[in-house]
Structures are given as structure tokens and as C-alpha cells.
Amino acid sequence: MQEIYENAKKLMKGYCRVCTECNGNACAGEVPGMGGLGTASSFKANVNALKAIEFNMRLVHDVTEPDTSVSILGKTLSIPVIAAPIGGVSFNMGGNVSEEDYIRAIISGCRQKGIVGCTGDGVPDFIHKAGLNAIKQADGHGIPFIKPWEDKELFEKFDKVKQSGAGIIGMDIDAAGLITLKKMGRPVSAKTVEKLRLIIKSAAAKFILKGVMTVEDAVSAVSAGANAIVVSNHGGRVLDFTPGAATVLPDICNAVKGKITILADGGVRTGGDVLKLLALGADAVMIGRPFSVAAIGGLQKGVELYIDKIRTELKQAMVLTGVSNAGNVSKNILYGFK
């Protein structure tokens, strides 16, 4: 992984410093790029919220080979991790790897290791096209995310998704405030519950709504018929001064757990972070920037090695907290939580 990080640092120069700790400090305001919007308060909040959570270390138990697999949305994942949708290699990551090679590395690497990768959307259109081509080449093994466009573009892209063979589709509704899209004059917007119902019905697939940060929006997602939500502030790239995903996750889980699949995204850097979010109530987690760095630095091999790293860290954390199954993690493994 160190070789991959060093290569990524060269290829992403000027767009990402590939810091030892990816915490938003060095890249504040660098959007486009891999940074957080404005002061990067929201990016930092994701990381700091997870860092503030501590484990209860337990070793008097019989857990030696924990089961890291989970089943969500009809899919079995070898670890409870999904590669988050990130695109725009040319203006976010340096452009030294093509969009096609990058997203193929994400989708194929995840498939090889028994998890799922997501594809992004945006301007120019080849971001979306490259993602759908990669999913089609992987026999539908991937989750395409669509921005909250206005009707014509939105439904046209839904039709293209159906041709890729993907059985799950997502909308990153939090992209409604993206600076990059606003600058390009492309209409994206927030959606009412009624509008979401129509969108979800039109999608004709299992539907994930990404960008849920309040109990109210989580309840609305259930009402609209979504199959899953992602508790996420879009990596701190759309609104400054939001809390971290781990901060709001417990209240959201208390409100809708069991009614909808709950994913969490933001600041996840280690397998221990994955376990923390599972303990707070998530069914699985999404990881963004670290996957992008691994893909740029090592293409599919980099992605696979990164997944191996997370898997090893997760298993170690499960053993050291007495967790036998990733699908059943108690809050009791966290210090100060009951």
C-alpha cells in the first residue's frame, strides 16, 4: 500500500496530497479537488466524530475468526463496505489516469474481493457513461448513482442505467448544492417526498437515497419508498459546518432502524472506523476518498489491496472487542455507549 500511496501522490499532485491522515486540514476549500468546501469544517467533522469514539477492549471470549460478511439489498458483501460514488478524475484527481481506467479499477476490484463499488455522475457526461460501461462489463455488479437532475435528464439517465444490468440505483440528493455543477449551469435540485415517490417508482430498481443527515429526511425517505439511505454530508463538499455522519447516525437509527437499510459514509479510514459505525446502527458503510487514492495509485491492484487492508483491520477490531458477526454489532463495544 505504501508504494501505491507514493504513486498516487505523484499522479494526484495539485489535487490531493495523499496525507498520512486524510483529515481535511491540508486541502480545505479545494473543490474541485479532493478537499472540503469552505473551511472544510464538515469534512473534518466526519473524521473527528469517528476519532472521538473509543472501544471497550475485551479479550475474555471465544471469538477467534469473526464473520465479516453482511447481506444488504439482496447482496452478500464479504465485508460491510461499499466503495462510494466518486467521479471526475480530470478535475478532482489530476487527470493522469483516465475516467474509464479509474472506474473500471473500482468496480472490478470490489467485485474481485466480494463487495460492491458505486459509480458517480456529473459533468461532463463521460463520467456517467464510463461508470455504466464498467458496470455492464462487470455483468451488472455495481451501483450507479445519479445526481438530482431535473426531470428530462434524470429519467434519461435512469433508462441508461437499466441497460447496464444494475439492480440497484442511487441518488446523491446532497449533490443539489455542488459548486462544480452550479458553475456548469446544470440544473440539480432538492426533491419533495411526492417527487421522490415518482422518481423511485420510475427507477424500477432498489433505490438508495444518499445525503440524509436528519431524522426528518430519514423518515421522508421511508415514506417515499426508498430501500436504503446513506447518512452522509457528501464528504463535506456541499455545505460547510454540518456535523459528522457518526454524530447524527444514532438518532437516525433510533427513528428508522428496521424500516429501511441504513448505510453511513464520511471519514471512514480504517476497519476500526467501519466497526464503530456498525455499532452505532449502520448496516454497512461507504468509503470514498481512500478508494479513489488506491485506484489512482494502483488501479485494480490498489483497490484490492486497500480492501484487504480494511478487512484485516476490521477482523482485528472485532476480535479485540469480542464481536463474532458483522451483522450483529452491539453499542456495548463502544466506551460510554449502552
What does this molecule look like?
Strand 7 (206-212), helix 9 (215-224) and strand 8 form a beta-alpha-beta unit. The protein starts with a helix and ends in a 17-residue tail after the last helix. The strands form 2 sheets. The chain has an 8-stranded parallel beta barrel with strand order 3-4-5-6-7-8-9-10, surrounded by 7 helices. A two-stranded antiparallel sheet has the order 1-2. It has one domain (70-333): Aldolase class I (TIM Barrel, Alpha-Beta Barrel). The chain is 43% helix and 12% strand. The chain is globular, with a radius of gyration of 18 Å. The protein has helices spanning 2-11, 41-51, 89-92, 99-112, 126-137, 151-164, 179-183, 193-203, 215-224, 245-256, 271-279, 289-321; strands at 70-72, 75-77, 81-83, 116-119, 143-146, 168-172, 206-212, 228-231, 261-265, 284-287. The protein is α/β, with parallel strands linked by helices. Helix 4 packs parallel to helix 5 (126-137), helix 4 (99-112) packs parallel to helix 12 (289-321) and helix 9 crosses helix 10.
Query: Strand pairing plus helix content: what structural class?
Result: alpha/beta
Order of helices and strands: HHEEEHHEHEHEHHEHEHEHEH
Fourth-tier CATH superfamily name = Aldolase class I
Major β-sheet annotation: 8 strands, parallel, barrel
Please, what is the oligomeric state?
Answer: single chain
The top-level CATH class is Alpha Beta
CATH architecture label: Alpha-Beta Barrel
By DSSP (H or I, 4+ residues per run), the number of helices equals: 12
Strand order of the largest sheet: 3-4-5-6-7-8-9-10
Question: End-to-end distance, in Å?
Answer: 36 Å
Q: Radius of gyration in whole Å, from Cα?
A: 18 Å
Q: Name the shape in a single word.
A: globular
Strand segment tally: 10
**Total domain modules:** 1
Strand fraction: 5-15%
